[in-house]
């Protein structure tokens, strides 16, 4: 039996290690900086760096890196070894406080959205003391924030940390109003559920589309897809099981609370969920999880696909962001609780989230927008592009009763009067299971389900924390000036709920009726990334983020540009890959197939007694579709040329969204039909059926 408890966190420079290895005064100073954000003196950093280095070397590390999360969506690292030459030609292993605290990677090749001119291409990585250092592949990794010379954020961590600070400040103001003097911090927590596909590496290497774009650009429907629903929660195949076991152990070593694993709906699809933790750490851990999924799959002769929609007609992969806020003493502010005063406090926080989601629905849509996720949102497997909230019948009834000043009957049919200080208990477990809702209250947390599997969870949590912080700020402003707290509190909950209840929808979000109903309610329905992104630089967004000190206007604009450019670049790569696959592999296959058919037909003509209608049909349809390919390639090439002629990032992205993507779809259509006609031995790529069932 492995000692799992001993394994857990063994590669992390965590609290236990710090306490054991640092002199007491240094440990205390470091803890103070971690919890209160106080300045860390260089002499203290020097001692910490030295202890870290000794610990890392004992664990076999030779290098260190500042580990950061630029706007590429993945993590970045540049390794330096600890070696330092001495005068006598030997080496010392060195690591100073200065190097621990700050790094200066050449930042010119990371996306900055125009924030950083190349002549001042320096970027700085700054130690994030709140996330522990760890060892990965013999390298001591120091989690860092990444910013420009002028202090602008060039990464996902900086604004996330800022948003956590905002919600901390505003939520504490509200808590104080309820007489809570003991909490010193309010923390946002996240548990991200991660979906992914595993396929055999041999199949992967035969598909240029998977290699270059992460998804299949062609592929006829397989005879067996997910229709039998026999994969969901099914027994794990030995290869998958071995992969998951190794993944879990590696994650545990890194202190990641990997907890749940199971097969998902589609063949080859799986899910991993960790136990929730502080948003910042959870974000770091989710990045590590995705990275390890890829590297460990490779060791097992498989490839892990994190793309949102690797296969058309088969469920794609998402990520569920389970979010809550709680105090440093462990009280969950979204827990309905049992005592009346807690209920009132809970209702105020709940109403704050309702108002935040309604006020900033467009921004929540923005943070789920990407070229990959456009294939999912609104399809039958994922929530629509319309943001709405599920509260469950009980909670909705409670709020309705508060809104109308009426009574709420609880489950035991007791008549209870709804003052804010006297509220019924609501049974917790009646809240869940509306799987179609993009934003569902699930007992004591909210589950935001619109994200794509490849996303960093930094984005949605920056937006959630900031939007809720802003509403809490408004609530605190109102209530701090109140002469009659109970009365004003009741009035505030009532008013906020009444004004924002249009966002609450407990029905089936996948239905057509909801789309109509949502339009009537005035909710936005931003169908694609290109429709959604402009909201990011709207006046409302700028006001929100600058008021809460999370993004400056320049930072917002830079991110908007990076996201739009990323969208267009993704489609450009996909289009070019398609063109290449069609020209160099699919057309030659069709020609060879037609050649065979033609020869056979000629032979049959000489032997008049044979019926040749099948060959004639195949030849005719194949040659028709082949001719269409030619036209479609031409249309796609023209669409690409036109898109490139546009000047503005939004106009370019719009062209990719409509014309380029439209032509890609038409081309795919013809190719997919050809795949069903051309003999298997000529078809250059493994079929969907083969790929999806490749791991046995
Ligand atoms: P399901 O698939 O039913 O949605 P899972 O157990 O797979 O549920 O995932 C639920 C996720 O929510 C886990 O990561 C869990 O740790 C997380 N979670 C549970 N309670 C909270 C909370 N209070 N705040 C944030 N996340 C939470
Ligand atoms: Mg879930």
Short description:
By secondary structure, the protein is an alpha+beta fold. It folds into three domains: 4-155, Roll (Ubiquitin-like (UB roll)), CATH 3.10.20; 163-218 and 226-551, 2-Layer Sandwich (Creatine Kinase, Chain A, domain 2), CATH 3.30.590; 566-692, Four Helix Bundle (Hemerythrin (Met), subunit A) (Up-down Bundle).
Helical content stands at 40-55%
Provide a count of the helices: 22
What portion of the residues fall into strands of 2 or more residues?
Answer: 5-15%
Q: Using only CA atoms, what is the Rg?
A: 28 Å
**CATH architectural name of the largest domain:** 2-Layer Sandwich
What's the domain count?
3
Bulk shape: globular
Largest sheet descriptor? 9 strands, mixed
| Low-pLDDT segments, ≥5 res | 410-424
Number-wise, the strands total 20
**Structural class assignment:** alpha+beta
Instruction: Give the ligands present.
Output: adenosine-5'-diphosphate, magnesium ion
> For the terminal residues, how far apart are their CA atoms?
27 Å
- What would the CATH topology of the largest domain be? Creatine Kinase, Chain A, domain 2
Overall pLDDT score? 90
CATH class of the largest domain: Alpha Beta
CATH homology superfamily name of the largest domain: Glutamine synthetase/guanido kinase, catalytic domain
């Amino acid at each position: 039996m492995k000692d799992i408890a001993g394994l857990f966190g063994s590669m992390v420079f965590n609290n236990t290690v710090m306490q054991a290895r640092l002199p007491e005064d240094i440990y205390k100073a470091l803890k103070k900086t971690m919890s209160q954000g106080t300045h860390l003196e260089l002499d203290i950093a020097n001692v910490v760096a030295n202890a870290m280095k000794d610990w890392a070397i004992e664990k076999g590390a030779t290098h260190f890196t500042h580990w950061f999360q630029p706007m590429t969506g993945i993590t970045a690292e540049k390794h330096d070894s600890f070696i330092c030459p001495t005068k006598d030609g030997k080496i010392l292993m060195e690591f100073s406080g200065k190097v621990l605290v700050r790094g200066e990677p050449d930042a010119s090749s990371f996306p900055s959205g125009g924030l950083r001119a190349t002549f001042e291409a320096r970027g700085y990585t700054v130690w994030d003391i709140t996330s522990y250092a760890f060892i990965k592949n013999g390298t001591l990794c120091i989690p860092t924030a990444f910013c420009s010379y002028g202090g602008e954020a060039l990464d996902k961590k900086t604004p996330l940390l800022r948003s956590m600070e905002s919600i901390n400040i505003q939520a504490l103001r509200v808590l104080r109003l309820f007489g809570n003097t003991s909490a010193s911090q309010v923390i946002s927590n996240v548990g991200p559920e991660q979906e992914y596909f595993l396929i055999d590496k041999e199949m992967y290497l035969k598909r240029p589309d998977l290699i270059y774009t992460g998804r299949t650009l062609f592929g006829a429907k397989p005879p067996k897809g997910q229709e039998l629903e026999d994969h969901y929660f099914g027994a794990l195949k030995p290869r998958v099981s071995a992969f998951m076991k190794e993944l879990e152990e590696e994650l545990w070593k890194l202190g990641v609370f990997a907890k749940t694993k199971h097969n998902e709906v589609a063949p080859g699809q799986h899910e991993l969920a960790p136990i929730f933790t502080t948003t910042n750490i959870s974000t770091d851990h989710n990045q590590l999880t995705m990275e390890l999924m890829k590297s460990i799959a490779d060791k097992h002769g498989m490839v892990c696909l994190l793309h949102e929609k690797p296969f058309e007609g088969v469920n794609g992969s998402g990520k569920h962001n389970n979010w809550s806020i709680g105090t440093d003493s462990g009280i969950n502010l979204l827990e309905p609780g049992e005592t009346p005063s807690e209920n009132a406090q809970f209702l105020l926080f709940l109403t704050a989230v309702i108002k935040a989601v309604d006020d900033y629905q467009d921004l929540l849509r923005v943070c789920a927008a990407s070229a990959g996720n456009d294939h999912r949102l609104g399809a039958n497997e994922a929530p629509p592009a319309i943001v709405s909230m599920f509260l469950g019948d009980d909670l909705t009834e409670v709020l309705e009763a508060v809104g109308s000043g009426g009574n709420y009957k609880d489950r035991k049919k007791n008549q209870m009067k709804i003052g804010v200080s006297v509220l019924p208990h609501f049974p917790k477990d009646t809240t869940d299971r509306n799987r179609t809702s993009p934003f569902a209250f699930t007992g004591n947390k909210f589950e935001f389900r619109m994200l794509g599997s490849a996303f960093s969870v930094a984005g949605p949590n920056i937006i959630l924390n900031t939007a809720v912080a802003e509403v809490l700020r408004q609530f605190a402003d109102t209530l701090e000036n109140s002469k009659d707290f109970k009365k004003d509190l009741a009035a505030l909950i009532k008013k906020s709920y009444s004004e924002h209840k249009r966002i609450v929808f407990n029905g089936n979000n996948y239905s057509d009726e909801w789309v109509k109903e949502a339009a009537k309610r005035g909710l936005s329905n931003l169908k694609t990334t290109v429709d959604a992104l402009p909201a990011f630089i709207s006046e409302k967004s700028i006001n929100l983020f600058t008021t809460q000190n999370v993004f400056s206007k320049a930072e917002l604009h830079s991110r908007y540009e990076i996201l739009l450019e990323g969208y267009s670049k993704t489609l450009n790569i996909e289009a070019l890959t398609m063109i290449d696959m069609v020209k160099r592999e699919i057309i030659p296959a069709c020609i060879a197939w037609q050649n065979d058919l033609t020869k056979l037909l000629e032979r049959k003509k000489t032997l008049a007694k044979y019926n040749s209608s099948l060959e004639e049909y195949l030849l005719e349809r194949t040659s028709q579709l082949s001719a269409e390919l030619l036209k479609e390639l031409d249309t796609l090439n023209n669409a690409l040329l036109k898109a490139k002629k546009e000047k503005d990032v939004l106009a370019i992205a719009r062209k990719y969204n409509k014309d380029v993507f439209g032509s890609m779809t038409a081309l795919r259509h013809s190719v997919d039909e050809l795949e069903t006609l051309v003999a298997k031995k000529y078809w250059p790529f493994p079929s969907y059926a083969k790929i999806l069932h490749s791991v046995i």
